[in-house]
Amino acid sequence: MKFTRLVIVTAVISVFGTASFATEMPTENKGINGVPLQLQALQQQIPAMAGYVLRSRRVTLAPGGSVAKHTHAERPGFLYVLEGELTEYLGDTVRTVRPGDSWTEAVDTVHGVKNNTDKPAVAIVIDIIKEE
Length: 132
What we know:
Layout: H1 2-22, E1 30-41, E2 52-71, E3 77-83, E4 86-90, E5 93-97, E6 102-105, E7 110-114, E8 121-130
Antiparallel strand pairs: 1-2, 2-7, 2-8, 3-6, 3-8, 4-5, 4-7
C-alpha cells in the first residue's frame, strides 16, 4: 500500500513538473525563417483599407525555436499548420496544433509560440499589415 502511494505521488509530481515547464510563455524569438509569398494592397478592394496590405508567408520554426510573446493589436491574422507541431501559449491556455490545424489572431490576441519537438514545424501565416 505504501509503495502504491509513493508511485502515485511520484507520477503526480512528474506530471505537474512537466506541465509547468510546458506552460512557460516564450520570451525570445529564435529559429524562425519566414519566406514571403504574396502581398496584396487592400485599398483597391476596400477603400477604407488604404495603407494596408494582405501578406502571406511560409514560416518554418526550427526544433526548439520560438516566437516571443507578442500582440496582434494592429495585425490580425490566420495561421495554418502544414508540417510538424506548434505549441501556442495564449494566456492560461496552452495547446498543441498539428498539420491541418489552424488558429486566428484577432486584434486582442496576445500569445507566443514554440516548437517543442525535434522536427521543424511549417505554417502558412496570413495577416494584414500597414504598408512599409
